[in-house]
Amino acid sequence: MTRLFLDCEWADNIGSELVSLALVSEDGQRRFYSEVSPLPKQPSDFVRTIVYPLLDHGFHARQKIDFTRDLRAFLIRFDAPVVLFDHVADGVLLDHALTGFDLPANVVSKLGTVPSVTATLIQNESVRDWIEHYFREHPDQERRRHHASVDAEALRWVFLTALSRALTAFRLLRHAQLRHTVVKEKHWANHVLH
């Protein structure tokens, strides 16, 4: 299983018009980033003034047919990928891109195999709080917030930080349990021997 962290940017207020999509692997070594070309013509004011100026354009700007083909090719390399995201629209837009947007079926059928992906929404206030914490600790990334790659990296950091803290807490708990067991065994041995 490979965990991938997803973020999408969208042009409209309901999250139906994809602008860009980023995936980053848990180890941070494998990344996918693409922008829809042409961009949606009527973005919200926020997207026009904040998101569009952050876009990379050039190589990353792909027509929908290339976007779908490249996304499928990226995901097919992973064995049982689990894609984690923090907003419902991210999962919907990932599926929309994977299935070929609104392209004709005869075109989509030539774009390669649709990879099997497990999509998992991680949505709670503590995740949002930790994302805010990430951006406070990484002011250089704060300036590029709402670029899909930056936001996917923030989610990856939150997951790894939470996992690290959980493992540390588990180890401390386990150590305390073992110490308690040793103390009980010493007490039992002293009782039996006297």
Textual characterization of the structure:
It is a single chain. This protein has 194 residues and is α/β, with parallel strands linked by helices. The protein has a six-stranded mixed β-sheet. It has one domain (2-174): 2-Layer Sandwich (Nucleotidyltransferase, domain 5), CATH 3.30.420. It has seven helices and six strands, in the order E-E-E-H-E-H-E-H-H-E-H-H-H. A hairpin with a 7-residue loop joins strand 1 and strand 2 (18-25). The chain has helices spanning 45-51, 64-76, 88-98, 105-108, 125-137, 139-142, 148-193, and strands at 2-10, 18-25, 31-36, 61-62, 81-85, 118-121. It is 51% helix and 18% strand.
Write a concise keyword list for the protein shown above.
alpha/beta, single chain, Nucleotidyltransferase, domain 5, about 50% helix, about 20% strand, disordered C terminus
Report how far the terminal alpha carbons are from each other.
Answer: 54 Å
The global form is globular
CATH class: Alpha Beta
With strands numbered from the N-terminus, the spatial order across the biggest sheet is 4-3-2-1-5-6
Helix percent reads 40-55%
Computed Rg: 22 Å
| CATH architecture classification name | 2-Layer Sandwich
Question: Could you give a quick summary of the protein structure above?
Answer:
The chain is α/β, with parallel strands linked by helices and 194 residues long. Helices cover 51% and strands 18% of the residues.
Topology of this structure?
Elements: E1 2-10, E2 18-25, E3 31-36, H1 45-51, E4 61-62, H2 64-76, E5 81-85, H3 88-98, H4 105-108, E6 118-121, H5 125-137, H6 139-142, H7 148-193
Parallel strand pairs: 1-5, 3-4, 5-6
Antiparallel strand pairs: 1-2, 2-3
InterPro entries: RNaseH-like_sf (IPR012337), RNaseH_sf (IPR036397)
